[in-house]
Amino acid sequence: MVAVRLAPLSAADVAAWRAQREVAGDPLPAPETGVVQEVLEVVVDEVAVGGLLLERTADGDRSRCVVRELQTTLDPGDRPRWAAVLAALEDHARAGGAEVVVTAVDLDLTVPLSDAGWRAALTMHAKRLDPGVLELQDDRRVEVRPMDDAERAAWVPDALRALRRGATRAGLSDPAAGGVEARLLALADGPVDPAELLLVGVLDGEVVGRFWGTSRPGPEGPVLLATTLDLLPGHRGRGVLGSFLGAIRRRLADLGVVEVRLHLLGHHPGLRRAFLGLGVGIHRAVMTKDLRAAVGRGPVD
User: Fold this and answer.
1) Minimal CA–CA distance to 64: which of 17, 97, 106?
2) In whole angstroms, what is the distance from residue 75 CA to residue 259 CA?
3) Whether 62 and 116 share a structural domain
4) By residue range, what is the domain housing residue 187?
């Protein structure tokens, strides 16, 4: 049987960990105003294997334990030890009053977390683009153009409802917490920053979908952070998504974008499959577990 102990790190050890990460160019998250961090050492069979940085926050009427950092020397394939570490983490979070535990991990750690009953609330995708090369696309029925003012005003409340509903279904914090809601509301009637890409997809003269992304400078060229994409109700299930995505891709090529990054909520498996089919790979995932549920072990869908 694997024995796991989570022990508080001394102030000196925490300072040393922070200094080490600073030197490596990957600093540990700094605490936000009013948020208390807890730093623990992970000890497995009396051998120190890494550290945890935890934050406890309120999310509506739920108390959340957010694992901001999970750094260990454990092999992701060592399922027995990971099962024991995660069980100890869940017990610790529950003892502190948390009802939900959340963390973001690289793809290789999604397997042991899934085995322990965690689910992917959100997946983070990225795709490198060669501005000089367009993938072959047979279906070019949909074209894109910028949203006009009336379309933008109608889109903002729809997008806000979708973000809030999606965050709730995924078990994540309210979009207001990350500033997305404020950015979205600012787009309703004010001047649009040139970095914001607001497009509609048009098929036979009719708007079928809407897209919002934000351009950021990157070391090799512009990087597009995609935030929302939706098809209007009358056009869902008609096979236009692929054509719409292809039209967005062509517009990005015109803008010289070299990489696209996007987050997909866990309850959109169809959309995730569509992006994976376009070569948009998963590189990280936000995993969550409801600690109020029965403590079970087994893969999650």
Assistant:
1) 97
2) 30
3) yes
4) 130-257
Q: What is the separation of C-alpha 21 from the centre of its chain, rounded to a whole number of angstroms?
A: 23
Q: What is the CATH number of the domain that holds 64?
A: 3.40.630.30
Alpha carbon distance 29, 38 (integer Å): 12
Closest among 34, 41, 33 to 70, alpha carbons compared:
41
Tens-level pLDDT at each residue, the chain (301 residues): 899 999 999 999 999 999 999 998 889 888 777 778 899 999 999 999 999 999 987 665 568 898 999 999 999 999 999 999 999 999 999 999 999 898 888 888 989 999 999 988 877 777 777 755 555 556 788 999 999 999 999 999 998 888 877 776 665 655 544 567 888 888 887 788 889 999 999 999 999 999 999 999 988 889 998 888 888 888 877 778 888 888 998 899 888 898 888 777 654 556 666 666 656 667 788 888 999 874 544 433 3
Is 65 part of a structural domain of the chain? yes
Residues 147 and 196 in one domain: yes
- Asked if the structure places residue 262 within a domain, the reply is no
Give the C-alpha separation, 9 to 50, whole Å. 11
Q: Three-state DSSP class for 7?
A: strand
Within 13 Å and on the Cβ side, how many CA atoms surround 107?
Answer: 7
Measured CA to CA, the distance from residue 219 to residue 223 in angstroms comes to 9
Could you tell me the end-to-end alpha-carbon distance of the chain, in angstroms, rounded to an integer? 27
Number of domains in the chain: 2
* DSSP tag of 157: H
